Amino acid sequence: MNEPAIRLSKLVKVFGETRAVDGLDLEVPAGAVYGVLGPNGAGKTTAVRMIATLLRPDGGEATVFGHDVVREADAVRSRVSLTGQYASVDEEMTGAENLILLSRLLGHRKPAARDRAAELLEAFGLTDAAGRQVKTYSGGMRRRLDIAASILSTPDLLVLDEPTTGLDPRSRNQVWDIVRVVVAHGTTVLLTTQYLEEADRLASRIAVIDHGRLIAEGTPGELKSSVGAGSVHVRLREAADRPEAERLLAEALDAPVHLEADPVALTARIGDGRDEVAAAQASAALARLAGAGIVVDDFSLGQPSLDEVFLALTDHPATEEAAA
Amino acid sequence: MTTTAETTAYVPTPGMLSSVLAPATRPPRPSALSASVTFGWRAMLKIKHVPEQLFDVTAFPIMMTLMFTYLFGGALAGSPTEYLQFLLPGIMVTSVVMITMYTGVEVNKDIEKGVFDRFRTLPIWRPSTMVGYLLGDMLRYIMASVVILCVGLVMGFRPEGGFVGVIAGIALLLVFSFAFSWVWTMFGLLLRSEKSVMGVSMLVLFPLTFLSNVYVDPSTMPGWLQSFVNVNPITLLVSAVRSLMGGAPDTGAVTGVLVASALFVAVFGALTMRLYNRK
């Protein structure tokens, strides 16, 4: 498909003094998961709300499958479903009632709406809770109901605004599995997140935004090669071993080693964007430390955190707390 | 990606999810009426889940009727029963118009919730969300009217207009209340909190209902007050309802109420939708 699912050009949204979205350019190809990564207040939600026709842009243009979000709002609405950051379902109604209501609003007649609701409740494992008010649901159940509501009429574009924020790991995995099935079915998914891991696992392309502007864009591989595939975190038993450990790590990893405030901790950003290289380097480094007789209490290889990505891309941390 | 064999309550299976994603032919978008009625159904469900909220359409009107009949009846009309013949249509109007303000409170409570975002991203007739609230509220207005009528009949209200006159009076009251409620949907969208909606509602409703011909004949009032009372739409509505229930329909007043209703919908309906689209 040639036509992108979403095209934003010089999009602007101003709230009072704040330029929440400040000249954002973006092109989201159809048929895949596109991740939008950024800290709180980066403008992700504002951008998403403009795409979903909930907010009117103050400048620039946004089109969804070629339809302008202002001039052809109805055409956009009939192709897009939004699952907001806060559950977009009615707390006081039951799960079944929520789905029947929305199904009716999409044009299904009553018996068809009821069948469709039952079908989705079943597929999302909510049949037992169908008759309970949503306010009694757990976070994961609520999120599942929310996504079910978004695919009552399978949309061409599904927008998920931080779908896993606040969920436990199991519920988060369920959401990821659902997203994979939805995208395999041909729906384009736009996903905002604060977690690099989430974007990496799901998205085929990622945009990093900050202060309402695009600061990096590419495949997860490209993005990681610009910031390093991962970080090695090491904690030693004895603080006295740190200088020696620093030297050994620097040699083995071929990367600058950062000394943490904690006198037994060291960190290094490694790899050139390829996970297997990072893993090989990390195990070699661990062997060197062991060989030198340095006792290691903790050794981990993880993906760079959002803070590290931001440090690498913008020279400032993602959050105020991280700066402190 | 690890797929551990957890014994979880729910494990999404691709097969099952795919089957519900099957591209069933999309139904045509619902008509304006059908979308509005669906939102009306939502309002009914809310009443079903929180029936306590019907307190204000049952207990409050009974209290109003009893209070004012026995408080003023002897002094103003010689006896409570005689006063009731004059007061009942007016107290019915006051009670129903008073409870229209809950429309604004409901809208204001909902607008902050995520579910409103979903409604606003649906390709449906835009005002249907608001019309739905009003349809649900019509049920409340009907309940309040019937409760007052029953209390009145027990207390000795004997309308000259008979069954037809009373039904016509209530119908006119419902038309006006539906139109007047658009004032509250506007405030519900405009103001920041439930409390401020309540505050503004009281500020508007108290003078509007008391400075009218509900309780006493305006000719006993000072001239400057009469001039307000005479242009107050509530006065017009009370005259019309009273005339219908009294069996001598005042065509001028009835027409006036219908025109006022049309104006309320045109002005406040348009303002409401403007705010709704901008929110």
Automatic annotation (TrEMBL), chain A:
Its main location: membrane. The keyword Translocase applies. Residues 6-236 form the ABC transporter domain. InterPro entries: AAA+_ATPase, ABC_transporter-like_ATP-bd, ABC_transporter-like_CS, ABC_transporter_ATP-binding, DrrA, P-loop_NTPase. One of its GO terms (molecular function) is ATP binding. Keywords: Antibiotic resistance, ATP-binding, Cell membrane, Membrane, Nucleotide-binding, Translocase, Transport. This is ATP-binding cassette domain-containing protein. It comes from Nonomuraea ferruginea.
From TrEMBL, chain B:
Its main location: membrane. It comes from the Bacteria. It is a multi-pass membrane protein. The keyword Transport applies. Residues 52-279 form the ABC transmembrane type-2 domain. Belongs to the ABC-2 integral membrane protein family. This is Transport permease protein. The lineage of its organism: Bacteria, Bacillati, Actinomycetota, Actinomycetes, Streptosporangiales.
